[in-house]
Every structure is written in C-alpha cells, then in structure tokens.
Design a protein that fits this description.
325 residues, alpha/beta, Rossmann fold, 38% helix
C-alpha cells in the first residue's frame, strides 16, 4: 500500500499506557510537522499544541493493533542507530543529520523506550513479541512524509546499549554508532543537570544490571551507570563488526565525516556548511552559542569507568577506518 493511501499516513504511536498487565497505544497525527526539536518528547509536545482541525488528531488503540496497522505502511528501514553514554554530542549529531531533508533523524523517541522496557512492566511478554512491536513502531516513524526522505537515523536513549543484542537481532545489517566521551566529563555534566538515568529508581535497576534493592548515592549511581555503558561498548565491539566507535573529543565535523562514510550516505557541500554553522550553537538550546566549562577533578569512584574508557579508546584506535567496513 502506498504510504499516502494508508489510513494512518502521517500518524505515529507516541506513548504506551500500561494498566493491570494491559497496554494501550496512544496515537497522534503529525500534520507533516518537521521533527526538529532536540528531543522527540519536545516534538510530541509541539504536535499536541497544533490547532485541532475538523478531523480527529488523537486516538487510542490496543497495543496489538500496532502490529496489524503497520503491515502495509510504506517506510524507510533504519540507516543507523546512534548509541551514546549521554552528554557526548549525540543530540547535536542527531540535529545535524536532521538538517538534510533526505534524513529522518529521531532523537530518543519515548515509545521506543516504552516498548524496550515493556518486559519490566508486563513480565509475561516475550522478547520476540517486543521486537515485533518495536519494528512496527519504527515503520510509522520511517514514513516518507515529504517525499524526499531516503535515510532514517535513530538516536537511542543512553541505556539502550544494554538492549544491543535485541536490536542487532532485529536489524542484522544496520550500522551501529557507539558515541562516547571521557567519563569524568560526562560525570561533571550530569552532576550539574541530571538525566533520568543518573537518578536511582527512575529506570528499572535491572536495565543497568543492578540489584533491585541496591541503594546508592547519586554520584556512585551515575559512576556505575557509566562503567556499565563502557563495559557494554567493549563487549559489543568484540562481537559486532557493524559498529563504529566515535569519541566526542575528535570534534563534531570529523565525527560527521566518519558517520557519512560508515553509513554510506552522501552529505552535500551545502548541507555540510549548514552543519558547521549549526555546530556553533547549543544542541539543547539551539538559539544559544555553545560554551562548556568543565574542570572537575575526577573523584576516586570514577576509576573503574576511566579504566574502561581507556580500553574503549584503545579499541577505537586499533580499528580500521569506517569506509573499509
């Protein structure tokens, strides 16, 4: 079925509501609004503020309908997944990719996280069923809404590296980018403004491999989270050849060049110039010039993460250029 003739053309599932072991799926009409906000939760907020037309813009269905409705929708398969350890340039990378109308660039889509973590809310659900739900949701987000789209980039939430194998099984030929940064720099940024992964209890501890009854102070918790991310990176690069390690400290435009070669896309000189100009501004406050002052001495509790960072760096330096993959 042609995408524009599908009854849910331009619609996306945007959140799950789980009650008594059942999940309802909430839908919204995107009205061809561009996905340009730093995070997709902000895009949803924008879409909810679009004036109501004469036809409904919202709907709710049983989660099972997601699979049925996705069957015939025309879509683009993922071009690359961008994993990250937070505060390491992934939001800016996603925004730079979104400057090209050929790219659908999605940044931390809430329903993708809802689906991946569904097993913690509905224990009886199988991993195979979760994978089918995620693939169905991705079809709606990969719709060609303006007609020029050729590529689909998905910036994950930082903890999704722990779902690597499930995503790899689902997309065996899709490039995976592993973006990271010195953990002391990430740690300092998180102590100034904490993401939900930096606060114990906001995400199921099992996602990180922690004991559910483990009580930690905030700093020890984020130090352990960072160690877990980097340890997962080390395991992934040993077993998965379709991965590209990128260090934030290489500079955003050199990283974009490596991503271009790795994902086998072509960025025009005009787009690259736009990227250079956009890179001067803050990823999360696009109207503000970017500046960052970091200088905290790494606390002792970061030593494990720092050691793992050194091992990841060694792996990056040993690997062949992305263009040869």
């Amino acid at each position: 079925m042609n995408s524009e003739t599908h009854p849910l053309h331009n619609w996306i599932p945007y959140k799950l509501n789980i009650s008594e072991g059942n999940a309802d799926c909430y839908w919204i009409d995107t009205c061809n609004e561009p996905y340009i906000e730093p995070f997709f939760s902000e895009t949803i907020g924008k879409l909810r503020g679009v004036p109501r037309r004469s036809v409904p813009r919202y709907s709710v269905s049983n989660l099972s309908m997601l699979l049925e409705w996705a069957e015939q929708i025309e879509h683009i398969d993922p071009t690359a997944f961008i994993f990250h350890i937070s505060r390491c340039g992934s939001t800016l990378m996603s925004q730079l990719l979104g400057l090209d109308e050929q790219n659908i660039s999605l940044s931390e889509v809430p329903i993708f996280d809802d689906i991946l973590r569904l097993r913690y809310k509905i224990p009886q659900i199988s991993e195979a069923h979760i994978s089918k739900l995620l693939k169905a949701a991705l079809k709606f987000y990969g719709q060609k809404r303006i007609g020029a789209e050729k590529h689909l980039f998905i910036k994950t939430d930082s903890w999704h590296i722990h779902f690597h194998q499930q995503l790899r099984d689902l997309y065996p030929q899709t490039p995976f980018v592993l973006l990271y940064r010195a953990p002391n720099e990430v740690f300092e940024s998180q102590t100034k403004l904490r993401g939900i992964q930096a606060v114990p209890g906001l995400i199921e501890p099992e996602v990180f491999g922690f004991d559910s009854d483990e009580a930690l102070d905030l700093d020890t918790h984020i130090a352990n989270v960072l160690s877990g991310y980097l340890n997962s990176y080390l395991k992934v690069v040993v077993t998965d050849n379709l991965t590209l390690l990128l260090n934030y400290n290489e500079g955003i435009m050199p990283l974009m060049d490596k991503l271009e070669a790795f994902a086998q896309i072509k960025l025009s000189p005009v787009i690259k110039q736009k990227m250079k100009e956009r890179a001067n501004y803050h990823s999360k406050q696009p109207a503000e010039l970017f500046s960052e002052k970091l200088g905290m001495i790494a606390p002792a509790l970061l030593q494990e993460a720092l050691d793992l960072y050194g091992e990841v760096e060694q792996k990056r330096l040993e690997r062949k250029p992305a263009a040869s993959l």
